[in-house]
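Subgroup meeting minutes
Present: P.N., E.W., G.H.
Scribe: E.W.

1. P.N. recapped why we're keeping a running log of single-chain structure predictions: easier to compare across weeks, and new members can see raw inputs and outputs side by side.
2. G.H. added today's entry (249 aa).
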Amino acid sequence: MIKAVIIDDDEQMRELNARLLKMNFPDISVVGQADSVESGIKTIVDHQPDLVLLDIEIKGGTGFNILQKIRPYSFKLIFITGFNDFAIKAFKFSAIDYILKPVNEYEFIEAVERAISQLNADMADEQYTNFIEHYEKRTQSKKIMLRTAEAMHLVDISKIVYCKSDNSYTTFIMDNANDIIVSKPMKEYATLLEDYNFVRPHQSFLVNIEFISKIDKSDGGFVILQNGKEIPVSARRKQSLVASLEKLH
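Output recorded in log:
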C-alpha cells in the first residue's frame, strides 16, 4: 500500500484530492492531511508517506518552507497550485510534477501515475534541492533534471551542446557524448534554456551558444559547432540568431 499525505489550506481541495486518489488509485491510502507549514511538517514526520500532494500557498508560509525543513526527502512530491509562471519554470527545471488549479482529473491522474513510477528513484534530494535553488533564484548551479524512461539525470546546463527534436521526443547531446533522450517535445525546454545562452536556429534544434564556432552562410546557412557538427539555420530565424550572437561581443 502506498501512503499519501495531502497538504492544502483549502478543505474542499483536500477532500477533492483525497476523493480522486480513492477513485483512481486503490493502492494509495491517504494517511494524513494538513493545512499549514507546522502541521504539514508534523504530518510528514509522523506518517513517513511515499507521496505528498502539496499546495504552494498554505497557512504559516509556503510549501517550500516545508521542503526546507524535512531533508532528507523520502517521498515523491506533486505540487498543486494556482498559476505561477516562475514556480512552473522551476518545476520544469527539476522534472517535478505539478497540477494547476482548478484541478483537472485527467491531469491529476497523469501526475500521480508519473510520481508512482518514480517511487523507487534515488534522486529525490538532488531533484528537490535543484527546485528550491531555481525557485529562490539561486541559479548559480545551473542544473536541470532530465527524466528518461530509465532514470533521472541531474545535468549541468553548460555541458549541453545542443538539443534535437524528434516529434514528441528531445535528444540532449552532451559534451561527454552521453546523449539523453527525454519523452517531451523540445518546446518544453526552449523557454527554460533561453536564459542560459541557448538559441534556436531551426525548429528542430536548440543550440548552446558556447559551443558555436561560426555561422556558414552558404546553402541557406549553417551553424558550425566546435566539434564540426553542422546545424541548419532556417531563413526566418537567421536574423534573430545573428542578433543573439552579436550580443556576446
